[in-house]
Amino acid sequence: MNTPIDPIDGPLPLLAGTPLRALRALPPRGFPAAPPPPGLPTEPAGPPAPRILSCLDGGVLSVGLAGEFDHHGCLPLRALLDDGAALGARRLVLEAARVTFCDSALARLLDRWSGTGRSWELASASRAVRLLLDLWARLGRAAGPP
Predict the structure, then answer these.
(1) Exposure of 108 by Cβ count < 10 A (0-12 exposed, 13-18 middle, 19+ buried)?
(2) Distances in whole angstroms, Cα of residue 112 to Cα of each of 33, 54, 85, 117, 130
(3) DSSP code string of 44-56
């Protein structure tokens, strides 16, 4: 039997005489989420999302990193560095002691930052970051602090 099914995310029907404030208080349509079966992990699979904290003061952009920074994880960091440069930051101080994984995308971002006459320094670094920067320098790249 074919019956139309209302989409869960569809608009609520407007009830005549009902104030808009009351409509917002209605519970969402659809079924409540079922609890996961016992024994299954409740957290999403995959690596944790990278975390970035930043502060811009007097031309110095201070950035703290935690988590994994690959090509996709570096996208928010790249946007942050672009915004910092647009706001006048000339120096980058990077605190990367809590980075658990990083690849050449992070080194390329640091090269990109220093390639336009800006400087950067490493306040602290995890083993993964130190290994990456050491390898990058051995390959003849410019990803070391100036």
Answers:
(1) middle
(2) 45, 18, 11, 10, 18
(3) PSSPPPPEEEEEE
Amino acid letter for position 120: W
Distance CA 16, CA 59 (A): 57
Rounded distance between C-alpha atoms, residue 21 and residue 115, angstroms: 54
* DSSP 8-state secondary structure symbol assigned to residue 111: H
Residue 15's pLDDT is 42
User: Dihedrals φ, ψ of 98, to 5°?
Assistant: -105, 15
Q: Name the β-bridge partners of 56.
A: 61
How many angstroms separate the CA atoms of 93 and 58, rounded?
12
Sequence-ordered alpha helix ranges (H) in 4-143:
20-24, 75-86, 104-114, 127-138
Alpha-carbon span 119 to 15, nearest angstrom: 61
Beta bridge partners of 66: 51, 98
Task: Count other Cβ atoms within 10 Å, centred on residue 1.
Answer: 2
Task: Quote the pTM value.
Answer: 0.65
Query: For residue 30, what pLDDT is reported?
Result: 52
> Which token pair is 128?
């993964």
